[in-house]
Amino acid sequence: MRTRSMVFGLTILPILASLLITAVLIMLVGADPRAVFEKVWEGAFRDLRSFSQVINFWIPLTLVSMGLIVTFTAGLWNIGVEGQMGMGAVFATWGALTLQLPPLILIPVEILLAMLGGGLWAALVGILKTRLKVHEIFGGVALNALANIASIYLISGPWQPAEGGSVRATPPFPADALLPPMSPDFGVSLLALVIVGVVIVSVIVALRGTRWGLQLKATGKNARSALLLGVPTGRSAMSAFIVCGMVAGIAGGYRVLFTYGSLRPLVSGGIGFLGLLVVLLVSIRALWVPLVTFIFAAILGGSTRLKVALQLDASLAGVLQGFLVLAVLFSNGLRERWRETNPAHLSETDIKTPESLKADR
Amino acid sequence: MGLVMNIELKHIHKRFGAVHANNDINLTFATGRIVGILGENGAGKSTLMKILSGFQSMDSGEIWLDGKPVSYNGPQAAIAHGIGMLQQDPLDVGAFTVLENFIYGQPGNLSPKRKVAQQQLEKLSQRFGFELDPDMPVSQLSIGQRQQLEIVRLLALGVRTLILDEPTTGISTEQKTLLFDALRELAAKDSMTVLLVSHKLEDVIALCHEVAVLRAGRIVGSMDMPATTTELVTLMFGQELAAQPRQPINANSDDAVLALHKVQLRNKRMKIDNISLRVRAGEIIGLAGLDGSGQEMLLRACVGLEKCSRGQIDIAGRDMTGKSYREFLQTGVAFGAAGRLEEGLVAGLTLTEHIALVTSHQSFIDWNSARQHTEDQIKHYNVRGRPESRIETLSGGNQQRVLMALMPQEPVLMALEQPTRGLDVDSARWIWQQLIERRKGGTAIIFSSPDLDELVTYSDRIIVFCGGWVQEVADMENLTLDELGRMIGGEGVIQ
Ligand SMILES: Nc1ncnc2c1ncn2[C@@H]1O[C@H](COP(=O)(O)OP(=O)(O)OP(=O)(O)O)[C@@H](O)[C@H]1O
Ligand SMILES: [Mg+2]
Predict the structure, then answer these.
(1) Residue B393 near ligand 1, beta carbon < 6 Å
(2) Residues B218 and B264 in one domain
(3) Mean pLDDT of all residues in chain B?
(4) Can you spell out the DSSP letters for A183-248?
């Protein structure tokens, strides 16, 4: 029980602390933090439209975070998740721009393509790691850059809009290729919500109840021992990458098939990195992900209207995020120190690096 | 104050959930004495020592030093009070050099004191005959050297009481001699108190002035030395243990389960050429030699964890040269490594998860049956722990039992590094009974051990490793411990 309340504290406290620091900062620049938070709240929950914005941010963020739960469980830092989103978007765009199919078939095909793109890109990181011993962080960073270059090339080249080349976006997709919103007021895709639900449940079930999940966990905690116990650790790592990549691919696909309706550079918008932060914040406890991503989505979605309302820049959300990163690092550092001085508690709360991070169970 | 130190433990209690690991412990350790702490696996020895050295907190009780109650929080504070401990599983300070590690924890930290510290390190090493290169990375030291480093580090910090938890598992005979000489000298000349946790009764007999025995968390007896092994065993287990008769060779067929043909093994430090060996079903082969003479390499080669640079390995008649560990597993071999938590067990997973990992073959795990199975195994292997205990919370000896429980039931061949490492005398016998049971079913066993007695008692044949050479003991019938000891030391090697 004590561990549970501690987990709660260590998840929620950094969020509260960074809110507090941001409030102080707002006061320093001469604005009223209460007004700001009210505006953010309003921005997020004032009406169905603003709420739908929050949900539209929540969907891809939750998807990548759930994917990252899988790789973190296997002890892998999948920094490449941004590029995996990007490739998901590129593959989905190809489907949207070139395939002539009835919507009932086209949309599932687009989503499968997005999974294929993300999965492929993740598989590359996995191959680099397991065959060529390139650390997944380096492989990931390189492949992120490549995915970005690929999409810029496609936008300014083959998929250039007819009216002539800027590096802004592809032509808008035909209406049949887009995910339909639930209603004109509530611009959220039902299909996407269903997919998110399925992903959340499957990841939790897979990690808790399947041999695959247990093998991932063992690999993540001690790959050497796992190997000796007969776990195919290379295959485990590879499959974790691919699963995460496919889920991230869906998230990228969602960005182009719903949020933007076209492909643009950096389509992931940093959601992948934010997902990494979320998973560190919840110390790989899958059940916590939907809640924490929701808090993030609300703050980020709510801040978009700050500029209009208070002459404050919407990048305030970015500032808040920055503090959050620091707070997470700080609380992990604290935890570490606390462990050092109380080694007796070692077994109860080993939550720091992916190797010692525990999956939700 | 200062030089003399008298430690009193009063009514110490420590519980882990339902386990009462220390139950009302009262003990006094006088200055200048070497005290052996004995007891079966899971008796609570490590826990008590960790409490005394600040690595673990107690639930209730008092520690008195020189007539005054003290309380401290954490190992640094204990060191400040003059109590330092060498852990059962040595801590890792990976990338640091010997000197950096030596300086670590000293007041005033790093740069200006480097020179002074280096001199101090050299002086202390010289005094005890330790060979510690200040610039060598700690990761390249042998277990014995790490131990030496830890001792001089603690001494430099002014420790007056030294606690050693199973210090002689995994170190060579020379290192052991050095260690014991150092401990004797520290006790006699510097009137330090030395507490030694050990399962090796001959070590205890050689070194200690007195012993205290724990059983199931309580002190059940103490005794002044000298005492015989039998007396100590009786004190520990409440009864004498019957001597085990030597097992007759039980090879029931002539087919080789394992065959090595002119195998060459090499690593950075050595090369062993021309190893040829045929092991028949049901045979037990012991590998003898000083620590790191190549026994481990050979064991690992037999299961595909080490590549042979030349030669051929057959398992049950199939050429397995160059195949992966997983392919070896599929032919029915089993491997048990010496380092439990580094190789073999996964810290952070529960017992049930370990069992499920090796037994479930369906995609979905049936946790109920896995738990049931775990409970059976716990009973069968007499493990102190519950299905939901995390493996790292088990005592060292109980971890070893779990390692055994995780092995397949009827392997063709078992390759075991130090199968009874860290086990109390009774448990070690019990493990061997299990192994001999399996051998009756046709399993061949090849194992290494630093314990000559164990080698002579259980092996049908013994292979001696020495200075890059291997040699089979010719006359097993009349082999004595002394003779084996001399062969390991390099005498009588036919070159
Ligand atoms: N951190 C922990 N959490 C839960 N139980 C623990 C923990 N540490 C020790 N125990 C339990 O306390 C008991 C005593 O353990 P301890 O390690 O002190 O035994 P030991 O006498 O050193 O045994 P061994 O000879 O096998 O090393 C064991 O039953 C063990 O499972
Ligand atoms: Mg112990």
Answers:
(1) yes
(2) no
(3) 84
(4) -SSS--BHHHHHHHHHHHHHHHHHHHHBHHHHHHHHHHH-HHHHHHTT--HHHHHHHHHHHHHHHH
